[in-house]
Structure formats: structure tokens, C-alpha cells
Amino acid sequence: MSDNEQDQHSTTDHFKIQYQDCIGLAERLREAVVEQVSELLKANGVTLGVPIESRVKTWNSIADKFDRKRLEIKNINELEDLVGVRIILLFRRDLENANRLLSNSFNVISSEDTAERLSESEFGYQSQHFVVQLPANWLSVPSLSGLGTLFVELQIRTLAQHIWAAASHKLQYKQKSGVPLPLRRTINRVSALLETVDLEFDRVLEERTAYVETTQSANSETDPLNVDNLRTLLSDLLPSENKSTDENYANLLQNLFHFKINTPEQLRSIIGKHLNAIYASEVKELKKARAHPSEHDTTRLDRGVFFTHVGLAREALRAEFGNQRVNNILTEMMSDKPKRRVSRKPKK
């Protein structure tokens, strides 16, 4: 072994020891960032396309990076991608808001919008990259102490962008020049289709906003119930404190249709009729939950609420149609077991 190779081997062993010493801190940092980012985006109405992805870089991956790039660092803590977190959003319009929230919440060391260095045919590689550290005020929390020296690489992209990034990575079509000529037209078409998906989802959201505003101004009580006018109606009738950011209006709509409640007028009548019973149930369940706070969302308990808007509406159904009947219907609708089809042999 040459002197050069011996020096390189010694350096690699040195970094490997550093890696083993800080792997626990890196894992704590990964968990903390995922938890905080999840809560931050949820609280600000940013919709994830899939759960946040994260990893701590493996030693084999780091060793390979040393071999390929000849990194000039003195400590493993200097690796900007030791901890990686990928945030995949459902809607393109949330990108700007998510970027702002992250920039304001973390100590940003560097940032890059990859779209600025890519051609139109490389749509799939568009994403925002941040290298960040925890802000000083976070480090005073005992569970986060000691994490201030490590970096986190944050990637943000839409689900459509991620689909193409994953596919192009698998195909190894990272640059246009690397794509066989007969396939370039098809590849360009796929990237354009995925970009269209992002644009059309934005159009859906804009049209939905316009529809909700029109519905509110027209206040039509006899139109058929749908997810959007149901949300608006419950916000109008029920306390804002009870409203949650992730209410399942679609399931409630199925419940209402089962009981032949098809219009805002019908639902408004039932909720108005049973307001006292609804709030009595709220007080009762809140008292029970406070007796066992570890089993419930303490944030809601601190606000003095138990039911969501959807939950309060179901309490109105129970008051109108009977507790047992409504519970039976809810159980039936929530069952994930598919109905078995029995095949009968024809009689001879």
C-alpha cells in the first residue's frame, strides 16, 4: 500500500469514528425536524402529497461520496446532507407558502431553486433545496440540546415533480443528452403532462374558491349538498373553536345522504333543532376526555373542545335518528372488509 493510500485509509477511519459518535445526534435531529415541519405545515394549511420522507446518510454512502468527490472537510458534522428531509406537497400553489414557513422557522445556510438551472425538458428535477440548522431558540429545549452543529438538507417539491424525479432516476435520464434520440419526444411529452397536472390542480383550487364565494353570496338552501357547501354551512352554524384543519367532510356527506338529508336547508333545520343536545354531548365528552388526557389531543382539550365540526354534526344525527341507529350506520360505512361474493353452482 502506497503512502497516499495509507493516508487516505487513515482519514477514512477517522471520519468513520466521528460518524459513529454523532449518529445518535443525527437521528434525534431527523426525528425533531420531521415532527416540527409536519406540525408547521399542518397548522398553516399546507397539504402534503405523501408523508414526509427522511433519512440519516449511511456510512457506506458517505464513504462513497468521499471517493467520488474528494470532500475537503475536517469533521463529519460539516456534511450538509448528513440528515435529509424531503417534503412532497400535493399542490403547486403551496410551494411558496411552504418555502416561506421553512425560511422563517430555521436558520437557513443556503438555498437553491433547481428550476433556475434546468431546461424545460427537465421538469422532474424541479425542487427547492435548503441547507438549514436549528435556530438558537430551539436549542434551549432539552430534547434538542446538542443538535446545533449539524446540518439538514430540506427538499421541497410537488407530487407531480416527485413522480418524474423518481422515474427519471430509475431510468437514469438525468440530462437530455443522456436520453436516446428516439425516446426524447416521449420523455418531453411525459414531463409536459406532469407539469400540466400541477397547473390543472391549481386551476381546480381557484375554481373551487370562486364556487365557495359564489355559494356564500347566493346562500342557496335548496342546492344539493356537496363537500364545499357542507364545509361552509358547518362553519356558519358551529363554533369556530371546534373546527379542525383535517375534517373528513366526504364521509359525513355519505352519512347525511343515507338519512335523506340532501340540502343545506335540511341540515340547518336538524342542527338548529338539536343545538342543546349537541352542546350537552360536547360538555359530557370533554369532561370524560379531561379525566384521561393522555388518550386525546391535548391541544383541543386546552381550547375547551372535544368534537370537530363533523363530530358535532353527527351528534345532531344521533339526536334526530337515535344513537344506536346512527352508530350502526357509521360502523357499517367505516368497515374495510369487502363483501364476500358467494358463487353458487347451477343446479343440475
From TrEMBL:
Name of the protein described by the UniProt record: PpGpp synthetase catalytic domain-containing protein (RelA/SpoT-type nucleotidyltranferase)
Residue ranges occupied by any RelA/SpoT domain in the UniProt entry: 54-179
PANTHER family: GTP PYROPHOSPHATASE-RELATED (PTHR41773), RELA_SPOT DOMAIN-CONTAINING PROTEIN (PTHR41773:SF1)
CDD domains reported in the protein's UniProt record: NT_Rel-Spo_like
Pfam name, any one: RelA_SpoT
Any one GO biological process: guanosine tetraphosphate metabolic process
SMART domains noted in UniProt: RelA_SpoT (SM00954)
